[in-house]
Amino acid sequence: MSVKVNALPVEANPALTDSTINDSVNIVTKRTTWQKIFDLFVTSGIMSGTYASGISAAGVSQATATAISATFNRVDSVAAGTGVKNSAASVAGETRMVQNNGANDLLWYPFGADQFYLTDGSGLQGASVPITIASGNSAKFICYNAGQLTIQG
Question: Is residue 7 part of a domain?
């Protein structure tokens, strides 16, 4: 059984606007993006870890999926039915995030016999069972117990 995480509509190019007054006559509008805000958090040290982008999902099973190992992973190319997998067994205290920036749903497989734990009431999933991340969405796990990855939306 596969559970879809965050199947929400997403704006193609969400933008934020911040206005500042240069002088008593002119108002200059300055635009920023969510990526710039994320980058600010990273450079300020609020979010620490390793980062990977430009990832291409591959394979249609845990054995053939693209291996990922960074703390924050952005998958930019997702063909239908393809996925990524954790590159090593989970250890307590580990955190990992996967963002699906591709056009299709992304399958995220745990490593080996590790299991995802869903907080939506579904509980512990079967060994090696992937979760599905809808296009334009992300999921994050926190490992409280080795081999069990608690999904945080």
Answer: no
